[in-house]
UniProtKB/TrEMBL annotation:
Family membership noted in the UniProt record: Belongs to the ROK (NagC/XylR) family.
Lineage: Bacteria, Bacillati, Bacillota, Clostridia, Lachnospirales
Function: Transcriptional repressor of xylose-utilizing enzymes.
Pfam families referenced in this protein's UniProt entry, alphabetically: ROK
Protein name from the UniProt record: ROK family protein
Length: 390
């Protein structure tokens, strides 16, 4: 619970940020909808929307005839085509992906660059900088800030990757320290699972649910928690290492020092190699292997095993955090729907809360790009909570 009060200036910024958030995250909204959602008085609301209209951050348009109410003329409020923008870069294990977006996640530009096999900390930092600089020159519109959504354990406060595995022998990378002096706009750095969860919070499942767990399947398995519409561990940047939950005490030894971690049974490379070994295939692209599983009973049975292991690890986590909505993203987007249903079924069978609530599992609507959209959401989160203003 927040204990500090808000002074009058703070209240004004907070209300303005809230209205901007509501307009940005709804496809079309009206002053009536905003009043209901924000519970602000009509005078306060009118002051804020007038200011946003005057600054050309939002625009109003007429409703289509068929939805007009008789005797009234409500207008839709949306983000202006000339509004400021936000930039973001997703640092994945294999590539950089940069985007420029407006506040409603409409992409203005995108550029992807693959890493070469001989990258070093210096070349990676330089490439992030050059891509950021390139993005900033793609539009005449003001860019408020750039978010870096990256693999690894991230010290969010100092913008440093503190630990990362299988990434060109790099252990630490001071992204903020390198980028900030070289760019004319604020830079924010966050772990990619946390960034993806922010994206879900503002533009995905979070529009209906205040509490949820985001699970990302990649070379490992990690998670991020949103509780009361706040990202848990927002500053320390720690992400739930679901992949290192032990599901088999007699299992093989893991890099983390424990035995039988979920990651040894259910990460993307492990699932691919199990399918290839059992079926004599040579899949390297997870999406293609998942398509194949729909037609091959042998490959599908491997996913059924994985779903069981996932369910037990997930249950361990859910028992602790008391959350009943789970969003599967990153490469988990490509898991067949029946496999997600099977994970949900098992969790609900074994959950200690089974008589009180039903655990529901959803797929992200951002395909395997939640972390990409999440990069700009790092900046939007600052804007929507009044930490940066325009
Ligand atoms: Zn482990």
């Amino acid at each position: 619970m927040k204990k500090s009060g808000l002074n009058l200036i703070g209240v004004k910024e907070f209300n303005r940020a809230l209205i901007l958030q509501l307009i940005s995250t709804s496809s079309k909204t009206t002053r009536n909808n905003l009043a209901k959602a924000s519970k602000l008085t009509s005078m306060t609301l009118t002051n804020i929307t007038s200011e946003l209209l005057q600054q050309n951050i939002i625009v109003e348009s007429d409703m289509e005839n068929d939805v007009k109410n008789v005797g009234r003329n409500p207008k839709y409020l949306t983000i202006s085509p000339n509004s400021p923008l936000v930039a973001g870069i997703w640092v994945s294990k294999d590539f950089l992906f940069g985007i420029l977006s407006d506040f409603s996640l409409n992409l203005i530009a995108a550029k992807r660059e693959e890493f070469r096999p001989d990258e070093t900390p210096d070349t990676i930092l330089q490439r992030i900088w050059h891509l950021a600089d390139h993005l900033l020159h793609l539009s005449e519109r003001l860019v408020l800030g750039i978010g870096i959504s990256t693999i690894g354990v991230v010290d969010t406060l100092h913008g440093i990757i503190k630990n990362v595995t299988n990434f060109f022998d790099i252990k630490e990378l001071d992204i903020l320290g390198y980028l900030q002096p070289r760019l004319p706009i604020p830079v924010y750095v966050k772990n990619d699972m946390q960034a993806a969860a922010l994206c879900e919070m503002y533009y995905g499942i979070g529009r209906e649910k205040e509490n949820f767990l985001y699970i990302g399947l990649t070379n490992g398995i990690a998670s991020a928690i949103v509780s009361n519409r706040q990202l848990v561990n927002n500053l320390t940047g720690s992400c739930g290492e679901l992949g290192h939950t032990t599901i088999n005490f007699d299992g093989p030894k893991c890099n983390c020092g424990n035995r039988g971690c979920l990651e040894l049974y259910a990460s993307v490379p492990v699932i691919l190699s199990k399918i290839n070994e059992a079926c004599g295939t040579e899949f390297t692209v997870f999406r293609e292997a998942m398509e194949y599983c729909k037609t091959s009973p042998k490959a599908y049975s491997i996913l059924e095993n994985v779903s069981e292991q996932f369910a037990y690890a997930l249950n361990n986590l859910i028992n602790i955090i008391d959350i009943s909505t789970v969003v599967f993203g990153h490469s988990a987007f490509y898991l067949p729907d029946e496999i997600l249903a099977s994970i949900a079924y098992t969790v609900n069978q074994i959950s200690i809360f089974k008589n009180n609530r039903t655990i529901r599992i959803f797929k992200t609507r951002f395909e395997d790009n939640s972390a990409l959209y999440g990069s700009v959401c790092i900046v939007l989160d600052q804007l929507f909570t009044g930490k940066i203003t325009i």
